[in-house]
């Protein structure tokens, strides 16, 4: 058949269809929502290391940073709660917004949720670029957070629902690819604007550009067949399914979507429903995967790379360039995931990434301990700095092809339609909560735990790698309407989930 069948070794359906240019373009435009998130992740650390920004908003931090006394504890240079609030306030707002985004995504579709995300981000970026006081900065950050919350809620769901099962992983990772691209672009812009007197304004304000692109793109996108069926627009759903699959023969897949939608409509309270025993696996993964994703410590690098490199003795230009290097590694390594996730599966990438991150974090912790000790006095020679940067890049690469993209992909594809919006909202909220906490306390933790901070995160990498090895079934090539079958067949979840779990009409038909 055209384009080949959707190969699946779990006994799931083999729907007819091919990978069409339309679905590739659609998913690319939708993944632009990740560019907003990535741009903000990358821009903050560079801005907070710029002298002009610190002089205007945080003069006490600037004074402390310029204290070049040899006895100065390098670990505590940037320990300021208001400064970290500038970074972390966005993620607290994103946490709150994700719950409103869940209702918007379910009631009005995935497109409006993406549009609102872009609009909030646009206004927030403009406010930050024009800010004249800390209050204006924080309000802008909160609006940026609303944008991130709406985009992170809707985009992974949109991508999972539009993509054919056999390339769903690669297309969904487009979201993470845009995140990493946004981080790299932000690092390059910071490097370019750092010499300008008001460079921080340009860095923050340019975030309006991808926001405009997403707003326009979301208007032009087609809605997912799942969402159209969910809202009773069956003819439009058929037309869209034919368009994205490139074939008129979509009746079997369409009927499975209708059956899943009918099951979902029987659920009056999706938030209450996801807490039922039969959804224990989905609820578990929607909480623990995003939590562990942040507890890898990756955002220590993503948020504060220039600040961290300054603390470790890199010069101003060297710290910003090092952030560009790690951002470039992040993008390249994400491509590895795009080309391997649907070939080797999710579990292999999760496990390999965990082992590599663990090794790199331990080595980085040891290098910093040997140079700075407990008193935080010292600096790296060029060769030592290069070695440190190498292992930080290896750590970033491991995250970029494993826990980075899979942290968004796996929770979004595991949830059945009746709990998908609620599950994704929990996923985003958990992610944003831990992102907020780590952004807010990292510089204080660095001041108190010193080099031990890297061993702290390494401990969580051990725990989460064991978690995946023991509890996560392989989901590659499985249509998202049949994920219950995979979960029910897992050695652990079959003991936890009641036997009467509804595995969907499509699964029952295929068994028959």
From TrEMBL:
Q: Which family does it belong to?
A: Belongs to the major facilitator superfamily. Sugar transporter (TC 2.A.1.1) family.
Q: Where is the Major facilitator superfamily (MFS) profile domain?
A: 26-476
Q: Which GO terms describe its cellular component?
A: membrane
The protein's superkingdom reads Eukaryota
Q: How does it sit in the membrane?
A: Multi-pass membrane protein
Q: What is this protein called?
A: Major facilitator superfamily (MFS) profile domain-containing protein
The reply to whether Magnesium figures as a keyword in the UniProt entry is no
Q: Where in the cell is it found?
A: Membrane
Identify the InterPro entries for this entry: MFS_dom (IPR020846), MFS_STP/MST-like_plant (IPR044778), MFS_sugar_transport-like (IPR005828), MFS_trans_sf (IPR036259), STP/PLT_plant (IPR045262), Sugar/inositol_transpt (IPR003663), Sugar_transporter_CS (IPR005829)
* Segments passing through the bilayer: 21-39, 82-101, 113-132, 138-159, 171-190, 202-221, 283-307, 319-341, 348-368, 388-410, 422-445, 451-472
């Amino acid at each position: 058949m055209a384009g080949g069948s959707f190969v699946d070794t779990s006994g799931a359906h083999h729907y007819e269809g091919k990978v069409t240019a339309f679905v590739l373009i659609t998913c690319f435009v939708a993944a632009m929502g990740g560019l907003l998130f990535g741009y903000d992740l990358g821009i903050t650390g560079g801005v907070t290391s710029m002298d002009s920004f610190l002089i205007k908003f945080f003069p006490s931090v600037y004074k402390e940073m310029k204290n070049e006394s040899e006895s100065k504890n390098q670990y505590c240079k940037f320990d300021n709660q208001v400064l970290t609030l500038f970074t972390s306030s966005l993620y607290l707002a994103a946490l709150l917004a994700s719950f409103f985004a869940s209702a918007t995504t379910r009631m009005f579709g995935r497109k409006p949720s993406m549009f609102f995300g872009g609009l909030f981000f646009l206004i927030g970026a403009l406010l930050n670029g024009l800010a004249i006081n800390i209050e204006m900065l924080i309000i802008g950050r909160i609006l940026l957070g609303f944008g991130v919350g709406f985009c992170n809620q809707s985009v992974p769901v949109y991508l999972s629902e539009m993509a054919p099962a056999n390339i769903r992983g690669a297309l969904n990772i487009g979201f993470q690819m845009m995140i990493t691209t946004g981080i790299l672009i932000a690092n390059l812009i910071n490097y370019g604007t750092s010499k300008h007197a008001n460079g921080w304004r340009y860095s923050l304000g340019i975030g309006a550009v991808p926001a405009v692109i997403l707003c326009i793109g979301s208007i032009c996108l087609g809605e997912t067949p799942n969402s159209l069926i969910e809202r009773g627009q069956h003819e439009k759903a058929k037309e869209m399914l034919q368009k994205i699959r490139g074939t008129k023969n979509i009746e079997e897949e369409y009927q499975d979507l209708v059956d899943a939608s009918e099951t979902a409509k029987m659920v009056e309270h999706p938030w209450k429903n996801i807490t039922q025993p039969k959804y224990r696996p989905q609820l578990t993964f929607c909480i623990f995967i995003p939590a562990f994703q942040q507890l890898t410590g990756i955002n220590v690098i993503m948020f504060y790379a220039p600040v961290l490199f300054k603390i470790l003795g890199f010069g101003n230009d060297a710290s910003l360039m090092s952030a560009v290097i790690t951002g470039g590694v992040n993008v390249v390594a994400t491509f590895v995931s795009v080309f391997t996730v649907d070939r080797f599966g999710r579990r292999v990438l999760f496990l390999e990434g965990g082992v590599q991150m663990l090794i790199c974090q331990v080595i980085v912790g040891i290098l910093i301990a040997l140079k700075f000790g407990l008193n935080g006095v010292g600096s790296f020679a060029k060769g030592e700095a290069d070695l440190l940067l190498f292992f930080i890049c290896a750590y970033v690469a491991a995250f970029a092809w494993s826990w980075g993209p899979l942290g968004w992909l796996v929770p979004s594809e595991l949830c059945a339609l009746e709990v998908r919006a609620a599950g994704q909202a929990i996923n985003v909220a958990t992610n944003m909560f831990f992102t907020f906490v780590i952004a807010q306390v990292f510089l204080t933790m660095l001041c108190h735990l010193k080099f031990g901070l890297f061993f702290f995160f390494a401990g969580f990498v051990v725990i989460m790698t064991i978690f995946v090895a023991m509890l996560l079934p392989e989901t590659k090539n499985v249509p998202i309407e049949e994920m219950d079958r995979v979960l029910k067949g897992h050695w652990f979840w079959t003991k936890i989930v009641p036997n009467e779990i509804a595995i969907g009409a499509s699964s029952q038909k295929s068994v028959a």
